[in-house]
Amino acid sequence: MELDLEHIIEVVTTTARSVGVEIASPYFYLQFGLMVAIAGIAVATQFLLRKRVDVTALGSGLPAPLRHFVQVMVRGTAAAVFTLLVIVARVVMYHTTWHSRSYLLMVAAKLGLAWLVIRLVTSVLRNAFLGRVVSVSAWIVAALSIIGQLEAARDLLSQPSIQFGDVQLTPLLLINAGALLITALWLTNIVSDFIESRITRASDLTPSIQVLLVKMIRMGLMIVTIGFVLRAVGIDLTAFAVFSGAVGVGLGFGLQKIVANFISGIILLVDKSVKPGDIVTIGDNTGRISTMKTRYISVASGDGREILVPNEDLVTQKVINWTFTNKNILVKIPFATNYKADPRHVCKLAIDTAARHPRLRKGMRPNCVLTEFAETGMKFSLTLWLSDPDGMDGVKSDVMLALWDNFKREGIKVPYPVREIRLRSGQLPEEMVEPAP
User: Fold this and answer.
1) What is the pLDDT of residue 166?
2) Which secondary structure element, helix H or strand E, spans residue 261, and what is its range?
3) Looking at per-residue confidence, does 345 or 11 come out higher?
4) Is CATH 2.160.10.10 the right assignment for the domain spanning 273-321?
């Protein structure tokens, strides 16, 4: 690491001298007092405005860009009022005294105006944390430029360096690379979202192909973006050849599961064994596939739960896909009656009951067969086809309730086990005799 201490000391000394000269003037305290008073007025104005104005409903009748501008300005009322009043104070002092005696007000006005512009530009970022980071970083650069210290700060950040192969890493290089990378990734995300919206509206593409194309495009754009940023800041990609090889070996051993899930996700998208919208059963869990990610799929179980299943499990384990070739599904409803009932009449009654359900698939009549003469009664199996497996448990419940009502009307009994207790000695055991009160 190379560090020019003499240059740093010279910069610090020069800055301290200029600040000391400025502080020695009585007009410095006048300007500072005006700025403190103006800041108090600005904060009070924003507090009162926030209490009386609903920011989210503000400008509801305006066009979207203008409404966004109004809402951002209202949220930054303190900065706007501060900047406006400082400009007024600067103009008054500029025309009533020497120009240099209102220099601090001029700097404060420029800083406030720069903050308003930066907040307006960064308000389009969806991530609030990223927006704050970009705003503060851009404002620091603007502040250094306003006070004339940007070149000195740039020289200061260019002094310490680390030699990494043919690349000389400095704080300034890393800051430039980070800022450029954030901007490039943000633009890449916008382009990816636009392409994804166009792909998802393409009716001639299956859901799995849509997901595969979106993932490949996002990954390709990200790789191109990172390579472009590294080249733009002057970093030769061949300098990372050995480093990337070592990282690849480390990833291969330490992130085997992640890599396996990633490859499994690509396989699932290519072979179309599962796709968004399919109803699947994995282990004891059944639900509809809502999303397919790089590492996992999300299965909505219908009771508010989202089951995240690793892609590797779908490749290596047994998966029941209820809608793999079509959405038709056969529902089986077992039931039983006693031996006093006519089995032919029971089958006809069950078929007629199931045929009246609105979810029944058209053209597929229900069927009922006698399956067993059991110890307690006759067992039957009622089958019916549905055009969609979604809600099949509800259909099964509806048919069983209707069948129960018809059985009661026809006098058909449902068997139940009967238990008999025989006493050989004619006397109950002591533990079964209820004590006298």
Assistant:
1) 62
2) helix 256-271
3) 345
4) no
Token readout for 281 is 């059963």
Whether residue 3 has pLDDT greater than 50: no
Cα torsion 330, 334, 337, 341 to 10°: value is 20
Query: Structure tokens of 156?
Result: 């200061």
pTM (2 decimals)? Answer: 0.46
Q: Which amino acid is present at 390? A: D
- Containing H/E element for 310? strand 306-310
Number of H helices, E strands in the chain: 14, 10
136-167 as b/e, with b when 16 or more CB fall inside 10 Å? Answer: ebbbebbbeebeebeebeeebeebebeeeeeb
Structure tokens at 334: 């077992």
Q: Indicate the length of the chain as a whole number.
A: 437
* CATH number corresponding to 168-254: 1.10.287
Instruction: Give 335's pLDDT tier (boundaries 50, 70, 90).
Output: very high
pLDDT tens-digit readout, 207-265:
767 777 787 888 788 888 877 877 776 666 665 555 566 566 665 665 677 777 778 88
Q: What is the DSSP letter of 411?
A: T
What residue segments make up the domains of the chain, in order of their start?
5-160, 168-254, 273-321, 329-410
* pLDDT computed for residue 373 by the predictor: 92
Is the distance from CB of 178 to CB of 141 less than 8 angstroms?
Answer: no
First to last CA, the chain: 98
- Contact in structure between 129 and 94 (CB atoms under 8 Å): no
- Torsions phi, psi for 374 (to 5 deg): -90, 180
Tokens of 303: 């009771």
